[in-house]
Amino acid sequence: MWNERYAEDDYAYGTAPNDFLVEQADRLPQGPVLCLAEGEGRNAVWLAARGHAVTAMDASVVGLEKASRLAAERGVRIVTCCSDLAQFEIQPNAWSGIVSIFAHVPPDLRRAVHRRVVEGLRPGGALILEAYTPEQLRFGTGGPPVAELTMSLATLQVELAGLVFEVARECEREVFEGRYHQGRGHVVQILGRKPAEG
């Protein structure tokens, strides 16, 4: 599915970074940043332009080729890694920041990935996450077609246990990101930080 979607000439979700990421990016510490399910690279490239060392992972080789092309056009460098999230290994204590923007996967995989995210952050490192909630199904402006692929704040607070939540909210907002996120939506937004040691 994703190779087909990203094979379009245009960028499926645009080339501008996600609004919530832009709002929270100053709270990412310096150091390496991992962008999960990054697709065509809009967030990774923007973070690289801000001076971060960014790794963009995604299951779609087509999406990552476009991500590399976008990085070259913007004069920045990103590392790409083509992998299914189920097989992708997040090294413990390796990342100053992890970014998960609309990375919707089945619940069992999501729980496993979120455990690895908590382990993968360095002390003081931060997760920036935005996803659609089950309420999004009423809006029909993008996101998964079934509720089980969405996320709620209550669920994320359990799955991301071990992080301190500096931002944790569900809200309605306008989402305009390429062809596939168009209009008012219902999202959950998280900025979670791994406590510093000592």
From TrEMBL:
Keywords noted in UniProt: Methyltransferase, Transferase
Domain Methyltransferase: residue ranges: 33-125
Biological process terms in GO annotation: methylation
The protein's name: Methyltransferase family protein
Any one GO molecular function term: methyltransferase activity
Annotated Pfam families: Methyltransf_25
